[in-house]
Design goal:
With 148 residues, this protein is α/β, with parallel strands linked by helices. It has helices at residues 14-30, 56-84, 98-109, 123-129, 132-139; strands at residues 5-9, 33-40, 88-94, 113-117, 144-147. It has one domain (5-147): Rossmann fold (3-Layer(aba) Sandwich), CATH 3.40.50. A five-stranded parallel sheet has the order 3-2-1-4-5, with helices on both faces. The radius of gyration is 16 Å and the shape is globular.
Length: 148
C-alpha cells in the first residue's frame, strides 16, 4: 500500500526533530504529503493550587509563550519539508493528552501513516510516566512508524 498522507506529531524535542527529518525523507521518496501536528497543552504549566497566585497578565504571558513555542516547532518542521520540496501543512490542536490529539487528527485528516518518535523510557519510568507513543500504537486507525 503506497502512503499518500503522513501525520507527523512533534513536541519539539530532539527525538521528535529526528522523526520529522525521517518523515520528510520518506514522504519525498514515496511522493506523499505531510501534516505536521503539535498538541498544545491548554495551560503551559501545571496550575493546580496556583490559581489564586497568578494574575490575568501573567496567564496571558504564559499562554503567549506557549503559543510561540508551538509556532517554532511547526515552523521548523515546515522548513525541513520546504527545503526537501515536499508538500506539507501544519495543525495545532489544543489538548492535555497528546495521544488523543494525535489519534483524533489522524482520523479527521485521513492519514494513512503516523510517523512519530519514541522517547525510549524504559523500566519503571516508562511504566509510571506512560508512553504517548504506546497509546498511539495501540489505538491508531492506521499504521504507525516509530523512530528512535
Amino acid at each position: 500500500m503506497p502512503y499518500t498522507h503522513l501525520l507527523v506529531p512533534s513536541d519539539g524535542s530532539e527525538m521528535s526533530s529526528r522523526a520529522v527529518t525521517q518523515a520528510v525523507q520518506l514522504a519525498r521518496a514515496v511522493g506523499a504529503r505531510l501534516t505536521f501536528l503539535h498538541v498544545q497543552a491548554h495551560a503551559p504549566i501545571p496550575l493546580i493550587g496556583m490559581g489564586e497566585m497568578l494574575d490575568v497578565k501573567t496567564m496571558e504571558l504564559l499562554i503567549a509563550a506557549n503559543r510561540k513555542e508551538s509556532d517554532a516547532i511547526l515552523e521548523q518542521a515546515m522548513a525541513a519539508a520546504t527545503e526537501a520540496g515536499v508538500s506539507a501543512s501544519c495543525e495545532r490542536v489544543p489538548g492535555d493528552l497528546p495521544h488523543r490529539g494525535i489519534l483524533e487528527a489522524a482520523e479527521r485528516l485521513g492519514s494513512d501513516l503516523i510517523v512519530m518518535a519514541s522517547h525510549g523510557r524504559r523500566g519503571l519510568s516508562g511504566l509510571l510516566l506512560g508512553s504517548e507513543t504506546q497509546r498511539v500504537l495501540v489505538q491508531a486507525p492506521c499504521p504507525v512508524l516509530v523512530t528512535r
